[in-house]
Amino acid sequence: xxxxxxxxxxxxxxxxxxxxxxxxxxxxxxxxxxxxxxxxxxxxxxxxxxxxxxxxxxxxxxxxxxxxxxxxxxxxxxxxxxxxxxxxxxxxxxxxxxxxxxxxxxxxxxxxxxxxxxxxxxxxxxxxxxxxxxxxxxxxxxxxxxxxxxxxxxxxxxxxxxxxxxxxxxxx
Length: 172
Known about the structure:
- The chain is built from three helices and seven strands.
- By secondary structure, the chain is an alpha+beta fold.
- A hairpin with a 7-residue loop joins β2 and β3.
- The chain is flat and about 90 Å long.
- The relative contact order is 0.13.
């Protein structure tokens, strides 16, 4: 004989069982026991360890000590000048993958180069205290450049380029 309440009770029991098994699966695994305190303590001072520590002390001139070298540290950008900006197409849309070159105003050779991202944006860090020229060149467009002064003490400057088609360029 069929009882209408029996399937509901059976379904409720199944849901409770599934929840209890799922709860056990979600519990984090027990953590490992803490390390033994003896392993953390430094070794006793023996003649061998004293001689090695004295050799480290004599190496403290920066030639062999890793702690005194700057290789392990992150570079400091405290004295950098940030040049950032956006390059636009003639219709005002962002211009991705545009090559930008940056040089010191007193030099002929470009020392830094970058490309715009998918939103037409770029950012380059250069040393502070000099004047720079940022040049943008894309095939089919007029080359543009801007002079930036990094002597003023300001740590960054934003520039925007709106490229114009070259006189003999393609027409859409």
